[in-house]
Inverse folding.
């Protein structure tokens, strides 16, 4: 299973079938409102990285995390 690193706040690694698993890792499934969760986390990340992040869709949010170098896939360690 692929491994990813989220470098937001502190570096953390996780495993997921695909990069969208970062949302579950960050706790989106525990939220009452997906829209509010995306907006709140985008605001926090903007304050952390001093860069804008889209929150209209989950895909845009994750795409921007990658563009900002806050989310990356780790090379397989064999």
């Amino acid at each position: 299973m692929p491994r990813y690193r989220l470098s937001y706040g502190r570096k953390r690694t996780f495993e997921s079938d695909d990069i969208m698993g970062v949302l579950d890792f960050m706790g989106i499934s525990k939220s009452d409102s997906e829209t509010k969760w995306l907006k709140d986390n985008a605001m926090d990340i903007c304050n952390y990285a001093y860069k804008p992040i889209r929150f209209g869709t989950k895909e845009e949010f994750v795409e921007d995390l990658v563009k900002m170098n806050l989310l990356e896939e780790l090379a397989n360690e064999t």
